[in-house]
Amino acid sequence: MPKLKRRRLWLTLAVFLLLTAGLWAGNSSVLHGSGQRRPPLLAHRGISQTFPIDGLQNDTCTATRIHPPDHPYIENTIVSMRAAFDAGADMLEFDVQLTADGQLAVFHDSMLECRTDGTGRVADHTLAELRRLDLGHGYTADGGATFPLRGKAVGLMPTAPEVVAAFPGRELLIDLKNNDAADGSALADYLTTLPADRLATISVYGGDIPVEAVRSRLPGLRATSKAIMKDCLIDYLATGWTSHVPDSCHHTELHLPEAYGRYLWGWPNLFVDRMRDADTRVILVAGDGGWSEGFDQPDDVDAIPSGWSGWLWTNRVDVIAPLTDR
After folding, report:
1. I need a surface site. Which of 57, 61, 193, 201 has the fewest CB within 10 A?
2. Structural domain boundaries enclosing 61
3. CB under 8 Å to 256, separation ≥6 — which residues?
4. Which whole number is the average pLDDT over 270-279?
């Protein structure tokens, strides 16, 4: 090979290596990470009864496959939520759906048969009818031989306004369970009655349709949906290597599965810092994010990125808070 060609080849290689090194240095988390006490914790539905996710399908009744209970709490009840805050939660997530009489009931499933002694859709019952149900009726860890929570949660279904009133000033994340504009509009009707300082502590997520119904009424509210997160992450993948955070990523919330976050520029802690500067929260979900997996057991802590300064999603804040405090 002639000398001139060799020189050009070496020059090209040197430029490539310099660019690669600059790209790595500009997106490295080596010098980033939190010096805080521990990552902030999001308590998913309060303190919940957990269950194995192997073989889980969209129509699986999770109440019939719980782990043997080691606590008395049932998800989405105020007593469970209060226990979560007492255990160290920094934010609470809870589910909301519209009842037949236009109330914002706090309950996860669209159908009642799995968890309760009721039948049919939540949307076809009044709040008074739903209040009479036993929310722990269907929970079993041994295939139906015993029901250890039965009879212990009669009348405990709250409404969204009751949850907001129960925890003044605390960070709340409201999940609109039904992909229906009416649910979003009803929630927006309620949220517009709150003062600005309270609204600043409330976020909303769920289906694209109801979340858009809320955002159209309250454009300053922190809100997210699959479409919002998709737009943000696609834009960031295209430009994040420059450290630029696109407008689509500002003032929102990202629920990122631990398995996929590693593909983002600056992951983990530089990415979190960039999003924080854009007033966006990054919440780490365990696994691949398919089933709202949380960091729930001691072994799960090993999967948290070193120095993680974003939020952690957990169904068992009582277990995880003491471990992350270390």
Report:
1. 57
2. 37-324
3. 264, 282, 283, 284, 285, 289
4. 96
